[in-house]
Fold:
Amino acid sequence: MGGHAPAPASKAGPSGPPPLAKSTRLMRADAEPLKHEAEHNIFHSELMTVAMGPSHPATHGTMQMMLTLDGETIVDVDVKIGYLHRGFEKMSEVATYNQVIPYADRLNYVSPLCNNVGWVLAVEKALGLDVPDRCKYIRMIVCEMSRITDHLTAIGAGALELGGFTPFLYAIQGREALWDVVEELTGARMTTSYTRVGGLRHDLYADFEKRYRETRAEVEKLLRDCDKLLTKNRIFVDRMANVGVIGAEDAIDFGFTGPCLRSTGVDYDVRVAAPYLHYSRVQFDVPVGHKGDNYDRYLCRMEEIHQSFKIIDQCLAQMEPGPINSPDWNVVLPPKEQVYNTIEGMIAHFKLIMEGVKVPAGEVYGYTEAGNGELGFYIVSDGSGRPWRVKCRPPCFAIMQGLKPMIVGSSMADIIPTFDTINMIGGEIDR
Amino acid sequence: MSQSVVDAIQARFPDAVVSTHAWRGDDTVVVKKAQLVEVCRFLKDDPAMDFKMPVDVCGVDYLGFKEPRFEVVYHLYSLTQKHRIRLKVEVPESDLHVPTVIGVWRGVDWFEREAWDMYGIIFDGHPKLERILLYPEFVGHPLRKDYPQRGYQPLMPMPTLPTEVS
Structure:
């Protein structure tokens, strides 16, 4: 991989002394520096290995970076992940399709509803099932709300780790305000499990729209404050601009998606490139950056929050009352009156609970735009009620591979803003 | 996904294609191991294909379901042509070697490491084929169907940190 980094000095082999060990002058206080000797060679004649993480106060998420440093400059980095591996794919193989939904919550736990929706859409693709219009709009609304909370977390935590405590509090206050609405809807802040194969657990509550409008006003006010505190802040811009740069070609080669790819100027968004649900019926812009540095990624996220609000507004305007679940009793549980009063309803209920939704044998790859990029689920079905194989394609897994070319050659302090704008989520990358 | 990609691969590499199928709009091409890198190179460099983005690489274990036992699945996407393709390679249990395509897309690095970690599929030519989600001392490959669902392994002592520059 790479080829960007100069090769680290190797250990003393049988052939001779280590290449970087040089005779060093004793430093006299009154000594003049030698003309032809670079200063850093006097003070730092050896490379240093530093283990950053797995539990580091300035990184949110558990991962380890084995850094090889030349003074403050990063020469090489080895990124180690897997500290939060829980076996999502192995567990999914013994769960029914609906039982995977709670596991999917825990993938990207700052935007759980995106994962819920992504999973059921992949299963519905395998089933060849279409859901009612109202269900699609509600799924879009909750998806976009989750995207906003995801971006707010990334922005807030990024500001915090650069020393900006105030914007962190504002962003988290906005996130919590949105999560209050989500909690009233689903019963939980993060472990939502709101979607079902073929529908939703329940409809929106009566004054959802009113609560959403209040929250939107609050979040937008907080966002304006964050914007004023960060976007033109000299210290923040100096730390972010021209740091962690990656070009469009490299980003595509590494499989980047989401805000990290769009910041390089590539306008790839799954919602536009392959519209799912009713994304083809709403108007929104896809923000793209200029050169793929941290500042571009920050600006992309800020703008996407506004676009998400725009999408939710249009969904609420276009949405009409109606059923939220598919009428197919092979997929969706029948209403309770039917279960208790008719033999057909009772058998359908029994079969669905005991055996799960039967997905025809075959393989599909369902993909959606989650907070960090393209979230894909590759499902292999053997025709039974449980998946034969589930592969989750987490967006930040591909992006974390690109961390090395983004930070090699820059200063050690640049790791923190770069890592923040990548927005690695441990639950998602390690599964 | 796109039928034209399947046709192009079949026309260009008539010997390499084992089978093709399409289901729910996903086009799949199963190719022979020996020509995998060639096919990938063609898919990336040909302007009409232009699969510049490696989306996903994963292994699948079909123990007791079909033969050969393993498969490696590549999902590719083209940003300019806006089409997708699923490429598969069959891997029998007796010969777990697959050539790496890291020379075509750098982004498959970690995905191939994960397939090795979870299934024990050996990617020939990969510069650093090490465990990625599990720890180095772990024994076995947990996503294989013959690995127990509740398999338990004791945690290993902390590895010693390097004391000198490596």
User: Anything to note?
Assistant: Chain B has three helices and seven strands. The two ends of chain B are 46 Å apart (CA to CA).
